[in-house]
Amino acid sequence: MSVIGLEFIAKTFGMEYQEIAKHLSITPPAIQGWLKGRRKIPPKRLAQLESLFGIESDYFQKELSTADKLYIQRKNAERLSREEAEEVEYTYVDDNGQERTGTTYYNPYEGVLNEIVAEEKKAILLEQVADILNNGDSNRRALLEIFLETMKRGNKDELTVLTKVINYLNDRLDPFADFDAEKEQDRKLYEALNNLVD
Questions:
Q1: Domain range for residue 150?
Q2: In this protein, which residues make up the domain named HTH cro/C1-type (predicted)?
Q3: 152 within some domain
Q4: DSSP the chain
Q5: Are 100 and 48 in a shared domain?
Q6: 124 lies in some domain
């Protein structure tokens, strides 16, 4: 059985359906109807859910991908960080040997948040690769295979050229950003790329 966003969001944020119903001024059976797919969540209620959780309304009714779930976990960790970060006073000795007092913020969720962000980036990348493999034409798949094979080999010279080509394609406004104009090899690569793209 698939889990729609509302169910995952409520669980992630640690909120019971009864509590959500109270916030929305509705009965818990109405929420059960949404979860079982008997009814769609009305636009008015989607706006209230968005406000309650700080998550865009399209996440509440859809089946969530791994990246979607990590996004929701990140939003919850960000909320907890805002709520539970605290100012901490500390003592230090300055350059003149004087003891001073300073303040900093301690966020107990910083490590967790960083881990979630890293996992979310990986999940998004994997979903993009899967989309190319499943929905891309044969040229896109072939390019992806060449790219992955080059990455796997790890040859420094190949990776340098690949990086320059990708940077060129990413930022044609300043294509020399990663090119050494003094090197004949880089100039030739830049010119060849310009001829191919234009």
A1: 137-198
A2: 18-60
A3: yes
A4: ---BHHHHHHHHHT--HHHHHHHHTS-HHHHHHHHTTSSPPPHHHHHHHHHHHTS-GGGTTSBP-HHHHHHHHHHHHHHHHHHH-EEEEEEEE-TTS-EEEEEEEE-TTHHHHHHHHHHHHHHHHHHHHHHHHHHS-HHHHHHHHHHHHHHHH--HHHHHHHHHHHHHHH-TTSGGGG--TT-HHHHHHHHHHHHHH-
A5: no
A6: yes
